[in-house]
Automatic annotation (TrEMBL):
It holds the Pfam family DDHD. Residues 371-646 form the DDHD domain. Residues 525-562 are annotated as: Disordered. Belongs to the PA-PLA1 family. This is Phospholipase DDHD1 isoform X1. Residues 536-547 have a biased composition (Basic and acidic residues). One of its GO terms (molecular function) is phospholipase activity. Residues 526-535, 551-562 have a biased composition (Polar residues). InterPro entries: DDHD_dom (IPR004177), PA-PLA1 (IPR058055). GO terms for cellular component: cytoplasm. It comes from Dipodomys ordii.
Amino acid sequence: MEELVNIEPVCVRGGLYEVDVTQGECYPVYWNQSDKIPVMRGQWFIDGTWQPLEEEESNLIEQEHLNCFRGHQMQENFDIEVSKSIDGKDGSGINYSAIHSFKLSRNHVDWHSMDEVYLYSDATTSKIARTVTQKLGFSKASSSGTRLHRGYVEEATLEDKPSQTTHIVFVVHGIGQKMDQGRIIKNTAMMREAARKIEEKHFSNHATHVEFLPVEWRSKLTLDGDTVDSITPDKVRGLRDMLNSSAMDIMYYTSPLYRDELVKGLQQELNRLYSLFCSRNPDFEEKGGKVSIVSHSLGCVITYDIMTGWNPVRLYEQLLQKEEELPDERWMSYEERHLLDELYITKRRLREIEERLHGLKASSITQAPALKFKVENFFCMGSPLAVFLALRGIRPGNSGNQDHILPREICNRLLNIFHPTDPVAYRLEPLILKHYSNISPVQIHWYNTSNPLPYEHMKPSFLNPAKESTSVSENEGISTIPSPVTSPVLPRRHYGESITNIGKASILGAASIGKGLGGMLFSRFGRSSTSQPSDPSKESMEDEKKPISSPPTTTVATQTLPHSSSGFLDSAYFRLQESFYYLPQLLFPENVMQNKDNSLVELDHRIDFELREGLVESRYWSAVTSHTAYWSSLDVALFLLTFMYKHEHDNDAKPNLDPI
C-alpha cells in the first residue's frame, strides 16, 4: 500500500529540510549531505519529559487504542484533572482497576480510561517492586507505572508556521573547502544560529525572516584531477596536503586554464540555489524578495568577478592592442615596412568586421546576466579583494561613489567586514578616495550594546599617525578599552579623536605654538629631521593666528615632535574657521581630494567596517584565528541583520551629516 500511495515529503525546519515519511529519513533541500538524519513519528509521549516512545511500540499501542476506543469522545485538554485518587479508589472507596490491558514484548499497557493510560515494565525487579508497594497500600499506577499521553503537550496551530522569508543570504566559502568538505555547511549553520538569537532579541517585532543558504562550489570541480598530488614529495606530506587543499585554490584562480572553471562553478551554484528557492517559494519574487551575498576570503574575489564580469583575457587583449598601435622604432627595410603596413591595415579591417558582427549578434540576442538576481548587499568577510583590484590597476578616484569599484546597478551596497588582526583582510575605501587611508574604519557594535548609534550617524575619525607601541601592559590595555555596554561607539585606544570635533584640532606634542608655528603647521610632521629657523616676516601673521589660550611656551628644536600618550595630537585649539581651512593640508599634505570650499570629499556610504578587539586578546594568537572567527560572531550577525532589515525603513529621511 505504501508503494501505491505517493506520500509527499514533509517540510521541516523552515523549509531547509524535508522528511521522507515512508523511509523515516530527513535530508537537506539546498545542499548535499551524505549522512541521513533518522526521524520517527511521535504518537505516544511519556508524561513529564514528553519524550516519544519507540515507534514500533507506539504503533502497536496506537492500533490497540483505536480498536478499543474508536468513536469515543476524547477530552479536549491534556491538563484536566483525573477524578480518581492516586490510591486507585474513587470517592466512595471502591477500587478502580484497569478496563483494558495490552501485552508488549517487555512491557504491558493498562487503560484506566480512554485518556488515562499507563505503561508498566515486565522485568522481574519491577514486578517485585509493584508487589511490595501494592501490599503497602499504594496503587499499581502510582508505584511503578509511567503515564502516557496520546499526542504532544502543545497542539499545533496555524500560528506555528515560520515567518515568511523575504530576504535570502547566499554564504560563499573561500579556500580550504577541499581540505574540510562540508565546512561551509557547518559555518552557515553557526551563522544562522547566531542570526536567530539576534532576531529574537532585536528584530522580534518583524513579521519577516532572513534565511541563510550555504553555497558549496568547490567539491564539484575537477580542475587538474590528481596531477598536483602526484608531483607532491612525500616528506612532510601532511603539511603539503594541507597546502594543496587550501592555498592551491589561489593558484588555480590565478591560472588562465582553471580560472573559468572556478567562476562557472560558483555562478552555476548561485543560480541553481536561487531557482530552487523560488520554485519552492513562488511568492518570493512577486513580493519583492531581496538577495544578499556573504563571501569569505577568496570567495569575495570570485563573487566580485561574477557580478562585474571581469575577465583577464579581455585585459590581455587590450594590452596587446595597445602594443600593436605603438610604432616600431627599429630600422626596417622598405619591403618589411610595406608588409607591416599591409598587416596593420588588414588587422584594423578585421577588427572592424568583428565589431560589426558582435553588434549584429548583440542586437538579435540579448545576453543573459551572469546571475539571475539583483544583489542587494554584498558583504565581504576577511577579504583580499582590495589587493586583487590594486594589482589589476584600480587606483583611487576623485569621487566618493561606490561605482568606482562596484556599480550600484549591479549591487546596491558593498560592505567590507574584517577583524583588525586578520592577515588576509584589506581595506577597500582607500581605493575609492586615497585620503581614507588616514581615516579609521567604522567600528562594529558589540551585540549586547544598549541603544547603539546607527552607523549612518557615526562620524569618521582620523587614524593616529604614530604607530602604537607593541609593549603595552595588560592592565593598561584593559583600562583603556571601553566597556562594550556603556561606551558602544568609542574607538580603540590607538584611534584619533573623532573629526566631528574639528574645531578642537590638536597638534603634535605639548610644545608652544608661538614663534615658528607657521612652519610647523605647513610642515609634513617630521618628514625632515633638520631644524628650520622661523621667518621674522611671518611673525605678525602667526601672532594673529595664535589660539585663545596656549600652554607655557617651550622651544621647538626640530619638526619631529613627540606624541601624547592619549593618541591624539596635543591640545592647541584653532578657531573653527581656520581649522576648516588648515586641517586638510595639515593631515593630508598629499593625495587629498577637496571640494571647492576646501572641505574634503567624503564617501557616499562607508564601506570598511572593523570588528572590535576583545578586552583580553592576544594579537599574535588572534592573527591565527581571526580569519575564521566571523561565522559564530554575534557582532557580525547583528551587523548583517541591521542592513538586511534596513530596507524596510529606507523611506525615513536621511540625516543631515556634517562633512568630513
